[in-house]
Amino acid sequence: METQPLKNNISSYIIQSQEDEIKRIALELHEGVGQTLYSLFTGLKFIETTVEQEALKGYVSDMGELLEKTIQEIRLLAVELHPPTLTTLGLLPAVKSYLKLYTSTYGIEVDIDITGEEVCLNQSERITLFRVCQEALANIARYADIVRAVMSFSWKENDLTIMIKDNGKGFDIEKGWEKSTGLAAMRERMLFIGGDCQLSSKVGEGTVVRLSLPLNDTTDKK
Amino acid sequence: MNRSEEIAHVCESILANITADFVGLALQNREGPDVRWHYAAGNSNEKYKRISVRYGKGIAGKVISTGSPITINNFPEDIQGKPLEYPIMLAEKLLYAYAVPIHYKGAPKGVILVGSRTNDPITDSEQKMIKQAASTMEGMLDSLF
C-alpha cells in the first residue's frame, strides 16, 4: 500500500491550492477592489471641486483622504500577500524588496550576499523559496533577539543554496523540530520542490537555516 | 533644552517614576500615514529607530487610528492576531504594554507606550500619570510636525 506518496500528494495539493488562493485574493484586491476604490476616489475629488459649502467641502476632502489611505492599504496588503515582483522579476528582487519591508517592520538589518548568476526558477520553486525564507526571517524576528542577520544566495550550475544565519539565542534542534509546525512546514515545502531544508542551532550561539535546491533542465520557466 | 531633548526628558522621567522597563514615543509621519518610533528610554537595542508601522497596524498604529489607549497583557499568549503584528513588543521583549494617544490639533498623531519585560501591569495611578504626560507632550509636538 503506497500511503506516503499519497500523503505527499495531498500536502503538495494543499500547499499549492493555498498559494493559488492567496495569489487570487491578492490580484482581486489589487486589480478589482483597489481599482474600484480608485474610481470612487477620482469621483470624490471631482465632487469636491463642485461643492461650494465650506463645511461640506471639508467633509468630502476628509472622505477623500480616508479613501486614499484605504487604497494604499489595499495595495500594500496585496503586495504582502503575493509580491508581484516574484512573478515579474524573480526570486532575488522579491527577496530584496521583502528585506526592506522586514527591516522597517522589525528593525532587524539583513546583509545579503550573492554569488553566481541568478537562474530563472519555475513559479512553484520561486514561491516556495520565498515563503520558506519569509518563515525563517519571521522566526528570527520572533525568537532570535538580534539586530542583524545574514542571508546568502549561492547560484551554481547545478544547485542553489540559500543560508539564513543569525547569532541570536539559538534553540534545541530536537525540541524545535518536534514543537514547531513552522519549521516542519519549511522542510515539507522544500521537499515538495525537490529541495532540502537543514537547520543547525546552538543555544546562545545562533541558528543557521540552509536551503538547497537542485537546478536541472526540467525546470519549468513559467 | 531644545524640544527633542525635552521630549526625551519626559520619556526618561516617566521611566524613572513608574515600575516599567521601557518607554517609547511614536509619531505619525508628517507626510503619509506611517508611524515611527522617535524616542525611547530603557530600550535594550536600537531596533525601535528602524521600526515603522502603518496607520492601523502594530500597537502604535492602532492607538493612532482608534484614538484610544491599548493594553497588552501576557504577550504573546493573550493577544489578538499574531505576535509578528507587534514589532515593538518583539524588539524590546516586552510582555506587558500600555499605550496612550497624543493628540495634535485635535487628532491623534502620536503614542506613548510604557512596557514591561515582566508580566506586571502598571497601576491605575501610573496610567493616569502617563495620560498626563501625553497631554504635556501635546504642546511639544509643534516642532515635530
TrEMBL record, chain A:
Residues 32-217 form the Histidine kinase domain. GO terms for molecular function: protein histidine kinase activity. The keyword ATP-binding applies. Its EC number is 2.7.13.3. SUPFAM superfamilies: ATPase domain of HSP90 chaperone/DNA topoisomerase II/histidine kinase. Gene3D superfamilies: 1.20.5.1930, Histidine kinase-like ATPase, C-terminal domain. InterPro entries: HATPase_C_sf, HATPase_dom, His_kinase_dom, Sensor_HK_TwoCompSys, Sig_transdc_His_kin_sub3_dim/P. It catalyses: ATP + protein L-histidine = ADP + protein N-phospho-L-histidine. It comes from the Bacteria. Pfam families: HATPase_c (PF02518), HisKA_3 (PF07730). The keyword Kinase applies. Keywords: ATP-binding, Kinase, Nucleotide-binding, Phosphoprotein, Transferase, Two-component regulatory system. This is histidine kinase.
From TrEMBL, chain B:
It comes from the Bacteria. InterPro entries: GAF, GAF-like_dom_sf. Residues 8-139 form the GAF domain. This is Signal transduction protein with GAF and PtsI domain. The lineage of its organism: Bacteria, Bacillati, Bacillota, Bacilli, Bacillales.
